[in-house]
């Protein structure tokens, strides 16, 4: 049963798993592509192994930080992994997690009303609670900030930053000339073709972008949870790197929506249409 499940993971990456080795932070899978290893992290294993009793919640987890409901942790062996959906991993916080899920659901239920409430008077007429109204206005402001951030994105600077993160978090990676990476809901995933993988959490990238004037302030936990549902996972070539294309932590609908506009001026012309698509995408 276990071998079958691990093989299924390899198929997701178009790889055949020919052997595997249990490690403290997960499983190291030997593939058929030139004897390359694929490190499956703790979060992936939790879903496929919990039912067998092989893996227990809290198993060898030494969390570093809890950032808006996601753990970035290390195992006893020091392997780096990034955990999401912390309510599934830390039972003590299940009650808190359920409360936040209900908040997110409540926000979504105001979708139709928010769509038609453009002014404060409409807000009162439709009886939209002030906290949800403020969140809706924040999303509209977010779309505009994303548009401006996309215009000033510097490709080389982003690439240099990712390499810096690699140096800090994966001391074993010394050669940056051959690095593949992808963007997903666990952050920027790097592999230097020598079987060494590294996961950089998206919020860690966001923190740097924010400090350097690239990104908005992260203050709303509820919206962060909604955004995380729309992260688009894709592979990006070096020459294609840009803040928008990589969709690091930008909602999928924002990234795809703005990509249709040639410039900020073009975005401003189509602003209302874009905002409608954005809100529909986030809450529809």
TrEMBL record:
<protein>
    <submittedName>
        <fullName>Uncharacterized protein</fullName>
    </submittedName>
</protein>
